[in-house]
Specification:
Structural class: alpha+beta
Number of helices: 3
Largest sheet: 7 strands, mixed
Shape: globular
């Protein structure tokens, strides 16, 4: 059976991901990411703030996704939570420019065998997931509301109609 896989290109370390319970600060389609079974972290070693020692473009960690929640670092971005992880070292797994990509497990054939990975339970995160709180009641624009609703329901913002009655 083929499972969906989210792949991210990150400069963050394994230790940082263990602290927050996953990988965060992603601009992505929440519903599509929640439909994935795994997230594969690939190293961006050329980032000026790189935290990990892994080779550039290598896959170094896989997580089993449990949820996608608002990021604790960047408003409007997402934290991909996982309950189990596996540390791996598979070279040349990243291609492209967008730091978020979607695949299937079949597309990793010969590189990563998800069924044979050794899984470790995630520790309790030391940083709690962010709570969604608006800047202020008057700060939300129609465009922001449409964008947020569209992402929540997995539709294009043009499909959202907002009616204000006064």
């Amino acid at each position: 059976m083929t499972d969906n896989v989210l792949q991210v290109f990150t400069f963050k370390s394994i230790e940082t991901m263990l602290e927050v319970g996953g990988t965060q600060s992603w601009a992505l389609d929440r519903n599509r990411a929640k439909g994935c079974k795994y997230v594969v972290m690939c190293r961006n070693a050329h980032h000026p703030d790189v935290e990990g020692p892994e080779a550039h473009h290598s896959a170094f960690m896989v997580g089993k996704i449990t949820d996608v929640v608002p990021a604790t670092e960047d408003p409007g971005r997402w934290l991909v939570l996982f309950d189990e992880y596996s540390v791996i070292n598979v070279g040349d797994q990243w291609e492209g420019r967008n730091p978020v990509r979607f695949y299937t497990t079949d597309q990793y054939e010969g590189d990563i065998d998800f069924d044979t990975l050794k899984w470790t339970p995630m520790p309790e995160p030391s940083a709690s997931p962010a709570k969604v709180t608006p800047k202020s009641k008057s700060a939300l624009t129609i465009a922001e509301a449409k964008a947020g609703l569209a992402e929540t329901f997995g539709v294009d913002p043009s499909a959202i109609e907002i009616m204000i009655r006064g």
